[in-house]
């Protein structure tokens, strides 16, 4: 399907910001909301985006967004979340860190911590943490996934069974209405599940865009987390469940991390 100049710019905006709204686009292009709705419907029909209430988001389903696009999505929100998460991790901790751009943001915030032991299946986390001279780094070996420098598979999971971590810092591709953390690769979720079983506390980091995405494979539930760090309040029903489970929800507003 051929797309017009306005639809091309809409796609650029959604790749940059992760979400667009009908009202904002109507004002930006000085056209009616009905025109924008038609644009979004056309782009949705071609699979280029996914319609949500009041706007559209990056498409999701059974395959993940490309790594470079994920890294740019809501980078300010991820930094705020990461800063708050890092504040909750004391010097001298042992930490597992999984694959994901939110986890990598946490790694950046931990570069000034002292005497950490970091075990990870994320080569991007290795590159970040190696700048910290007091940090010991252990790579959970396995098959390298070239798309995002993640390491996945049973070899990685087997190594983690030898550890007992103070914290496991986990991200996800989607969070559903029941509080289930979801992802796309069963070999990746296997590693995360073993890390959860070997951690004293689980910290989950996920921005609000994950609330509107979908993925097919379960990692765990927010029930398994000590703290969930995010940038927008949960739906009241899920917030109530977290309270029942004893999962603290730490909502970070922009600039207050």
Automatic annotation (TrEMBL):
Sequence ranges assigned to domain HTH deoR-type in this UniProt record: 3-58
| Matching InterPro entries | Carb_Metab_HTH_regulators (IPR050313), DeoR-like_C (IPR014036), DeoR_HTH (IPR001034), NagB/RpiA_transferase-like (IPR037171), Tscrpt_reg_HTH_DeoR_CS (IPR018356), WH-like_DNA-bd_sf (IPR036388), WH_DNA-bd_sf (IPR036390)
The yes or no answer to whether the keyword DNA damage is present is no
Q: Quote any Pfam family the record assigns.
A: HTH_DeoR
Presence of keyword DNA-binding: yes
The molecular function terms in GO held by this entry are: DNA binding; DNA-binding transcription factor activity
> Which protein is depicted?
Transcriptional regulator, DeoR family
- Keywords attached to this entry: DNA-binding, Repressor, Transcription, Transcription regulation
């Amino acid at each position: 399907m051929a797309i017009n100049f306005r639809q091309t710019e809409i796609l650029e905006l959604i790749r940059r910001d992760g979400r667009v709204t009908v009202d904002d686009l109507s004002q930006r292009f000085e056209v009616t909301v009905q025109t924008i709705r038609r644009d979004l419907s056309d782009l949705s029909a071609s699979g280029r985006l996914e319609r949500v209430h009041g706007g559209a988001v990056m498409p999701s389903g059974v395959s993940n967004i490309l790594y470079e696009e994920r890294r740019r999505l809501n980078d300010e929100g991820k930094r705020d979340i990461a800063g708050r998460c890092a504040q909750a991790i004391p010097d001298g901790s042992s930490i597992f860190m999984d694959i994901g751009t939110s986890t990598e943001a946490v790694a950046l915030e931990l570069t000034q911590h002292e005497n950490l032991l970091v075990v990870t299946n994320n080569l991007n986390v290795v590159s970040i943490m190696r700048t910290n001279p007091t940090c010991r780094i252990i790579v959970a070996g396995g098959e390298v996934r070239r798309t995002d420098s993640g390491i996945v598979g049973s070899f990685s999971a087997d190594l983690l069974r030898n550890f007992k971590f103070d914290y496991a810092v986990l991200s996800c591709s989607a969070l559903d209405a029941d509080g289930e953390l979801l992802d796309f690769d069963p070999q990746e979720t296997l590693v995360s599940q073993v890390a959860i079983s070997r951690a004293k506390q689980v910290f989950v980091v996920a921005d609000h865009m994950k609330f509107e995405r979908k993925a097919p494979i379960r990692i765990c539930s927010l029930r398994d987390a000590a703290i969930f760090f995010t940038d927008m309040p949960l739906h009241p029903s899920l917030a109530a469940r977290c309270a029942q489970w004893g999962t603290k929800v730490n909502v970070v507003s922009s600039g207050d991390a």
